[in-house]
Amino acid sequence: MSEKVLMCGNGAIGEGAIQAGCRHYFGYPITPQNELTAYMAERLGELGGVFIQSESELAAINMVFGASAAGARAMTSSSSPGISLKQEGISYIAGAELPCVIVNVMRAGPGLGDITPSQADYFQAVKGGGHGDYRLITIGPASVQELYDWTARAFYLADKYRNPVMILGDGFLGQMMEPLEIRKIKEPKLPEKTWALTGAKDRKANIIRTLMLKVGELEEHNKKIQNKYKRMEKELIEYEAVLTDDAEIILVAYGTCARVCKESVFLLRKEGIKAGLIRPITLWPYPSAIIRKISNNVRYVLTVEMSAGQMVEDVKLAVLGRCPVHFYGRMGGGVPTSEEIVKKVKKLEAHRPEDDQPLAGRHKGTKRKE
Amino acid sequence: MKRIFGRPRSMTNKPFHYCPGCGHGIVHRLIGEVIDELGIQDKTIGVPPVGCAVVMYHYFNVDMTEAAHGRTPAVATGIKRVHPDKVVFTYQGDGDLAAIGTGEIIHAANRGERLTTIFVNNTVYGMTGGQMAPTTLISQKTTTTPLGRDARLIGYPIKISEMLAVTDGTIYIERVAVNKPANIIKAKKAIKKAFQVQLEDRGFSMVEVLSQCPVNLAMTPQKAAEWIDNTLTKTYPLGVIKDKSGD
Amino acid sequence: MQRILAAGFGGQGIVSMGKMLACAGMKEGKHVSALPSYGPEMRGGTANCSVIISEREIASPFIAHPDTLIVMNQASLDKFSKLVLNDGLIIANSSLVEINNDIRTKTRVVEVPANDMAIELGNLKVANMIVLGAFARETGEVKLDFLKAALEKIFPPRRHNLILINVKALDRGFKI
Ligand SMILES: Cc1ncc(C[n+]2csc(CCOP(=O)(O)OP(=O)(O)O)c2C)c(N)n1
Ligand code: SF4
Ligand SMILES: [Mg+2]
User: Fold this and answer.
1) pLDDT tens digits, A8-64
2) B80-101 residue pLDDT tens
3) In this complex, do B146 and A28 lie within 8 Å of one another by their Cβ atoms?
4) Nearest to B69 among A45, A51, A81 (CB)
5) What CATH number has the domain spanning B24-241?
6) Are residues A73 and A124 in the same domain?
7) Which CATH number fits domain C2-174: 3.40.190.150, 3.75.10.20, 3.30.750.24, 3.40.920.10?
């Protein structure tokens, strides 16, 4: 094991990218991710890589398009308002099946909002913020070490599936400092990028495009990328389960909120309430199966987010009415505290599930008399 | 009529949030004085930038709207086309105007929009903590040019005023500074003229103001003011760049 | 587990204190986290940093009730003193902070005239290190030597000339 260093989340993302062999970074300053841009300026300067502070986020994402088309491991990072500007480029990158890594250190919106942490870009990340039927592999790390590990891994996944990967952090994760082990990242060897634009020497010209005018061609292309997404759903899902075996209630949260929820679970256990936590790490593809399975055994699920309730929709789709799904959220830079969550659970405890609406599939075999 | 100590009537009494020695406060005051002198407080509409001056609306008794970073001239265009009889100005930093908003400013100027732009060039991104701006000088150190700006890697200090001057829609463009009293007096005259060009319905007018951001230049306010004279004006010479107002 | 909230105004080296504590905790082989407040995009104003040093994995890096509150200015005391539990500790930079009897009867208070001591040492900027020295002695949570070692991590190489005065300040705070 190498020695650990104290590092902020933004720096850890940068170092993860460097370790994965990313030598092309394009970005435009925005708080709360500026440490990452500065880190890449410094490190890529040392390593003789390419760092460009672009004139806008729009330019940055298209520089990533170009670098990726040319075969390089490329990255851009921003925070919410800047990520909105990148959506056009992201749609093109996904359509052209180009690998790259996009980092969103989320801040509170809508609009200029402010620079405080938020998780309100979940929809934008996992449901497609740009136009067309596409998906981003979306990762929600919850510690400085995970930011490093997953950023490094993201480059591998991007290349493997020829798909953009989004690292979805938030202002607190970006600023928070924790020990980081800068470990070697070993990934299986991937095939050469024979599709990349390198000059048509002794081969047919490579073309990268999203315009498909021939009748049926675009539909076939869509089917192909949808099949790829299906494969990802089989191969990629990752989550952390905390004290779920005997849990009677389950919290679901990712990123910063999951850290808080973990503490809440410990606090609730101390008070004799059998709580557990599912922490999705891949936000797309979403760990629906495990949530579905657990929802058969618990009285209810409580989703906690720094938003008005976005991921909770995916939780509901997973649970499909097997048990009630509750929500607790803070917005505009508010971060739920472990005490608030405990209070919310206690309130739900006082309200027995029998009082809830009968739900399809819940009381199998028992007929309710109306 | 001239009030030495109080704020211009078109301004509020709210204290500025700017760092000590920052040029933004001076530029605000000049705009306020010009608005007073032209008697246009009740027909002026402002569009502040995303940058340190984002909450400029706190300091003026003038209608204002926020705009997305760099989209300032487009938003101002929308306002002016609804109210051609109003005086519409944008206030933009070098990041807002010369980086992310380059497209908007060029086309607003080229359309000859009857707008006045006050372009505050402090050679850095103040608000986000001192990154390179398109106007950062060669060899100037910023958080994203840790070894100093290298032209081979990231190009040259952009000369937006000169670029805009070649479009036919622009009537009046001048570069001024607010680093010392003599320059401040000239700056005010230029700002007044720029508003007058709009009042005469002539076309687009802009004043580029070389301004000091001591915090991110890592200089004392006094050193920063001297630096403008001794260094910055070598790349960005002061004076009228284009004036067709008499034509 | 030790939960420390350090607070003061911008420029007092609050985040550096947090980093130093976390680095020293790491050296002890413990789990650590340091969460700086980050204010609006403009500078100035107040700063604080939440540091946790723990034997077990840290779930949440947020601190509701600090075991130790380090306050470098009055506003921070007024804002955060209520959060400290009764068996907690307040370390105050008494050059700038006045503690009333109400707080004194509830919580253990250690007063360090850090600004005055720093000026004596010839550099106001090291007031934060004097307070850290006092923290190390009062709590025993981190070793003084580990704090000293952390200085090398906090200062970039080009500013290592400042380490000596900071070491002196740590010693000074430890000895009062
Ligand atoms: C789309 C978008 N990208 C980035 C930002 C972050 N941001 C805020 S102000 C600013 C630049 C400020 O620099 P400048 O325009 O020179 O104004 P100054 O603060 O120097 O006056 C940036 C990049 C943002 N708010 N929105
Ligand atoms: S950062 Fe610079 S531009 Fe912004 S308020 Fe401070 S001195 Fe002015
Ligand atoms: Mg600027």
Assistant:
1) 999 999 999 999 999 999 999 999 999 999 999 999 999 999 999 999 999 999 999
2) 999 999 999 999 999 999 999 9
3) no
4) A81
5) 3.40.50.970
6) yes
7) 3.40.920.10
